[in-house]
């Protein structure tokens, strides 16, 4: 009986492999499903460790989560080339901003995540089963993007907490995933937060995923991701009147770096 199940399992896996090779759409769906399965399995593995070692919700759990997620890249043949990690070494809290391309961003995030750093995410993510649980245990700050008043109140509390507890906060200023090969306009919340708390902004830029991951083309293959952590931008002495200028400065600097990392230097010149 057991041999029969093994043979059936082997036959199914072989069939899926053949279908993936023959159809890009099938291959894309299978790899994406496998990524989702890994996220659930990783959460199931990390959650007990977080509870046993740290007793519940705390930013310290991010070390455990980071070590689990960093193994995912080997399943998909992804390589990270990282520059500028020393720019995370600032005294005290900071706001970290990065571009947001796809569901795969979690792997890129955990590849460079500094200690004592939490992320800001949409409230809906808290209800994604075991993945939502592990995000909660890791100290992720959930905001209701549909309610401007609620989001502002949360971000105001974040400003106080990050200074009091000496933590860095990671924000995606585009506000949503964007796999177009360019940037969306930045929302100003992260920059309001940085100026309110008078802490530096550290930009982090990931090269374009479109050469190996593109949902419209049903493309999901192995590839290399270049990551650059840019020098901190100080906000001391800035006021709310400077939010727009700070937002624009970060946007143009990060976009130019994005094109350079993505092997599109001519577009980098046009963006400056």
How would you describe this protein?
This protein has 272 residues and is α/β, with parallel strands linked by helices. The protein has helices at 2-22, 24-54, 61-69, 72-76, 105-112, 129-137, 148-165, 189-197, 243-261, 265-271, and strands at 78-83, 94-98, 117-122, 141-143, 168-171, 201-206, 213-214, 219-220, 223-229. It is built from ten helices and nine strands. Helix 3 (61-69) crosses helix 5 (105-112), helix 7 (148-165) packs parallel to helix 8 (189-197) and helix 9 (243-261) runs antiparallel to helix 10. The longest helix has 31 residues, at 24-54. 30% of the residues are buried. The model has no long low-confidence stretch (mean pLDDT 88).
Can you give the mean pLDDT? 88
The end-to-end span amounts to: 66 Å
Instruction: Classify the beta-strand content into a percent band.
Output: 15-25%
What gross morphology would you assign? globular
- Approximately how much helix is present in the residues? 40-55%
Major sheet size, sense and barrel closure: 7 strands, mixed
* Count, helices: 10
Q: Taking Cα atoms only, what radius of gyration do you get, to the nearest Å?
A: 20 Å
Overall structural class, as computed from helix and strand content, comes to: alpha/beta
User: Which stretches of 5+ consecutive residues score pLDDT under 50?
Assistant: none
Written as H for each helix and E for each strand, in order along the chain, the element string is HHHHEEHEHEHEHEEEEHH
């Amino acid at each position: 009986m057991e041999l029969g199940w093994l043979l059936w399992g082997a036959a199914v896996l072989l069939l899926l492999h053949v279908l993936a090779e023959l159809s890009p759409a099938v291959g894309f769906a299978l790899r994406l499903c496998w990524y989702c399965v890994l996220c659930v399995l990783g959460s199931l593995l990390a959650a007990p460790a977080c509870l046993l070692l740290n007793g519940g919700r705390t930013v310290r759990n991010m070390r455990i989560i980071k070590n689990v997620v960093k193994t995912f890249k080997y399943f998909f043949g992804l390589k990270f080339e990282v520059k500028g990690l020393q720019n995370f070494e600032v005294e005290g809290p900071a706001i970290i901003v990065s571009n947001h391309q796809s569901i795969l961003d979690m792997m890129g995030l955990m590849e460079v995540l500094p200690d004592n750093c939490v992320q800001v995410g949409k409230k809906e993510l808290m209800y994604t089963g075991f993945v939502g649980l592990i995000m909660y245990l890791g100290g992720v700050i959930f905001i209701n993007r549909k309610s401007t008043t609620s989001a502002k109140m949360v971000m105001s509390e974040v400003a106080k907490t990050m200074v009091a507890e000496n933590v860095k906060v990671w924000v995606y200023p585009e506000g949503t995933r964007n796999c177009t090969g360019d940037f969306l306009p930045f929302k100003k919340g992260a920059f309001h937060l940085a100026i309110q708390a008078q802490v530096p902004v550290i930009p982090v830029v990931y090269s374009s995923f479109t050469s190996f991951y593109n949902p419209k083309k049903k493309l999901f293959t192995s590839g290399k991701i270049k990551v650059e952590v840019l020098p901190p931008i100080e906000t001391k002495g800035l006021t709310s009147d400077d939010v727009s200028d700070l937002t624009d400065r970060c946007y143009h600097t990060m976009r130019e770096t994005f094109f350079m990392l993505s092997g599109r230097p001519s577009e980098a010149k046009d963006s400056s």
